[in-house]
Amino acid sequence: xxxxxxxxxxxxxxxxxxxxxxxxxxxxxxxxxxxxxxxxxxxxxxxxxxxxxxxxxxxxxxxxxxxxxxx
Length: 71
What we know:
Elements: E1 2-3, H1 8-32, H2 37-59, E2 62-63
Helix pairs in contact: 1-2
């Protein structure tokens, strides 16, 4: 048995929100011809953080402990 540190639903929701934020920034950039670099940096940082968390939980799963604390 493996224990994920973060809920898979939370990971997907968080990543979807990050992608949505980037999409909204791109829509505004396309309409106005300019990019809000602070919002873009924040959105990219948030997406990168989500990706790191997913990689940690998916690629390096932790073994689940039994009720008495032993593996």
